[in-house]
Amino acid sequence: RMLVQLGADYRYIEFDQGLVFNPINASFYPTGESLAPYELLDVFLNFKISTFSVFVKQENFLDLFSTNINYLLPGQPDYNTRLRVGIRWFLLD
């Protein structure tokens, strides 16, 4: 028996004001600098055959088609696209 899942996770990040982290008092404070909104799209594939399962996830998929640099915080760019792969296999007696 085989189970397959194919899907996507879409997020729209809208910023009106950038925040900066202050490590001394462990808090964020506004800078007055505005950040541009951006979109994130993650696509994934999971499949399972009895006790063996595999997942493949492409994070920040839209970054492959864009030349813009998105910022989470002022001076802190968002991560580039990345591929995550995982395998799990239960060996039973």
Short description:
With 93 residues, the protein is mainly beta.
- Number of distinct beta strands: 8
The general outline is: elongated
Termini separation comes to 19 Å
Q: Strand-residue fraction?
A: over 45%
Main sheet summary: 4 strands, antiparallel
> What share of residues is helical?
under 10%
Order of helices and strands: EEEEEEEE
- Helix count equals 0
List low-pLDDT spans: none
Strand order of the largest sheet: 1-4-5-8
Rg, nearest Å: 19 Å
Question: Which structural class do you get from the secondary structure elements?
Answer: mainly beta
The average pLDDT score comes to 87
Protein model, in words:
The relative contact order is 0.26. This protein has strands spanning 2-13, 19-22, 27-30, 38-49, 52-59, 71-73, 76-77, 82-89. It has a four-stranded antiparallel β-sheet with strand order 1-4-5-8, with no helix packed on it. A two-stranded antiparallel sheet has the order 2-3. The chain contains no helices and eight strands. It has 93 residues and is mainly β.
Which helices and strands, and how do they pair?
Elements: E1 2-13, E2 19-22, E3 27-30, E4 38-49, E5 52-59, E6 71-73, E7 76-77, E8 82-89
Antiparallel strand pairs: 1-4, 2-3, 4-5, 5-8, 6-7
Name a few traits of the molecule.
mainly beta; about 0% helix; elongated; about 55% strand; single chain; four-stranded antiparallel β-sheet; about 90 residues; 8 strands; two-stranded antiparallel ribbon
